[in-house]
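Quick one: structure tokens for this chain, please?
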Amino acid sequence: MKPQWYQMLDGNARRAFWTSFAGFGLDAMDVQLYAFILPVLLTVWGLSHTEAGLLASATLVSSAIGGWITGLLADRVGRIRMLKITMLWLALSTCLCGLADNFGQLLVARLLQGLGFGGEWAAGVVFVAEVVAPEVRGRAVGMVQSAWAVGWGMAAMISAIVLALVPPDLGWRITFTVGLLPAFVVYVFRTRLTESETFLKAGPPSSWHSIFSRSMAAATIKGSLLATGMHGGYWAIATWWPVMLRSERGLSTTATSANLAAVASASFFGYISSAWLGDRVGRKATLVSFAMGGILTVLACTELPASNFELLLLSFPLGFFALGMFSAIGPVLTELYPTEIRGSGLGFCYNFGRGMAGATPLLIGGSAATIGINHAIGIYVASSYGLVSLVAIFLPETRGQELRSVSQARS
């Protein structure tokens, strides 16, 4: 039986939902593959932890640029056109990662990958938010966000299968090519989408710096800090959790995959719960509760003497809280801005946070030698989610808000 919010979507909204869901799932899979092949690269290429952190950080930093540029262009040439471009860019740049022969080439490929990675979310969330009704916006956008769990799970499964069947020095390359065909399929379906009425009826796009104007500066600062905290916590976990399980805990590849599968599967339910709560109790309460849950869980995992079995059990609330909170940020950033600068504002805030969070994997890599990976993860993740809780308190409550143009916002 289809959920009530889905039944309220028309044909174009349903196509927008599913193509965005598929695109964001591939987005997650392509980028997350790096974390799963990282233990192999540390051995095969002899990478240092600092170099490994730099490769992760490079993608996040370039994604900030890609997300903002995509958001700016989406306000000018349309959401759909940019969604088609980002899908192809991401697929081809991910394949380039698998063709790299040394650290420098992989670094360049990861930088290119980040441009498409950042743009996919920026255009997709705005498009979905504009074609659904306000009362179900949180659930629709939140469910698109849940595709990240699917993509993460696919990355874990594909890397585990390939690395088990193919020698590691070739297997890690193959993992970077698996998303090419499905990306082209998504591209074809996106050619059948119709641009949102909200975008078509809006006035001419405002200048790129309008999101920093006196009337919008506070929203941009809060949105950027919110995204910085969420991404800082997530990317610390996503990049270094597999390494911690293997290096600090000494778990096998199978046991590591089981822990990560628990995180990914629990995150799917976290996305759904956060999306539902965002429409029911509000965006702010949802953000604060999930951030606090993330802090408590990650500290229990990294600072308490948990057994391997207890750590596996804790993987479920870790995934639920740490990733579930992302279902709330899409609606919040969408509702903070008028239509003419919505793509620019959302693209900047979300990807500014992702770019700032790019320092987190690097910092953890640099701290690992002195305090250990587990303690470094605990410190940086708890600090990041503390920032989320603080910023959420000062955000305006936007639940159920109609999307407005610049002229409507001024009237």
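The chain has one domain: 10-195+213-405.
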